[in-house]
Design goal:
7-stranded mixed beta sheet; two-stranded antiparallel sheet; alpha+beta; 9 strands
Length: 245
């Protein structure tokens, strides 16, 4: 869950909905570096599903008693977070091995070894899964890491929007074949205009997207059941965001 402060409460966007916006950005990408890419469909699929492991978790959000707000994807306790990534990297492994490899790279990019037994055991499993998916997809790690740059960029762009973060970001794309050129896209989100600026703009033109969201009244919830009941009573709305240069 992505939780941001709102005027009279919190704005909640699920991780799968954030990832779906990432996939939409990649699906409408008009630059030849992706539109003519031989693995375009798998890359777009991975962009849309890179946080699929959060489906079950975000369907039943939990209350963070310590901070007095709903848990988000950074504060969720260790055990359920490990379940998220083990589940998410395995869900499409048989039907979409290459896309699952990119999802696995996303998980490994997000988490580093910490000298903690549970985390390091998870990373051991993910590394074994990564190697098995490389073999199953007939790919290689270097190509997958290059393709993952698209996921990384789309994830950063979507996260800036969903978290209402004005912090600029910059991500390199895969090197252009036959050259030493490494294109870079910079971006920034304007929360007041609800506009994401990308330079150069990889879409055909300025485009508007809608992201499902809920606004939760700010109060002290007694626990997960109280939070769940309140969320069930809240209407789903949509965040309309414009993407332009």
């Amino acid at each position: 869950m992505i939780v941001t402060d709102d005027t009279d409460g919190w704005r909640l966007i699920t991780q799968p909905d954030h990832a779906r916006f990432s996939g939409e950005l990649l699906r409408l990408w008009r630059g030849t570096e992706l539109s003519a890419h031989p693995r375009r469909e798998a890359i777009v699929f991975a962009g849309r599903e890179h946080d699929n492991g959060w489906r079950e978790t975000d369907a039943a959000p939990s209350w963070n008693h310590e901070e007095g707000r709903p848990h988000d994807f950074l504060t969720l306790p260790q055990a359920p977070r490990i379940e998220v990534w083990l589940r998410g990297t395995a869900r499409f492994a048989e039907e979409q091995p290459y896309a699952s490899l990119l999802v696995c790279l996303h998980a490994l990019n997000f988490y580093q070894r910490r000298g903690d037994e549970a985390w390091d055991r998870m990373i051991d499993v993910l590394e074994e899964r990564r190697d098995a998916l490389i073999e199953a997809s007939g790919s290689d790690l270097e190509s997958a890491q290059a393709d993952y740059r698209f996921i990384e960029l789309a994830d950063a762009a979507s996260l800036a929007v969903c978290a209402a973060s004005p912090t600029p970001f910059e991500h390199p794309l895969p090197q252009v074949a036959g050259t030493r050129e490494t294109p870079t896209i910079t971006g920034r989100f304007d929360p007041h205009a609800v506009t994401l600026h990308l330079d150069p703009l990889p879409l055909a033109g300025a485009t508007s997207f809608e992201i499902p969201m809920r606004k939760l009244p700010r109060r002290a919830y007694t626990g997960d059941a109280d939070l769940g009941g309140a969320l069930a009573a809240v209407r789903w709305t949509r965040l309309t965001v414009r993407v332009t240069s």
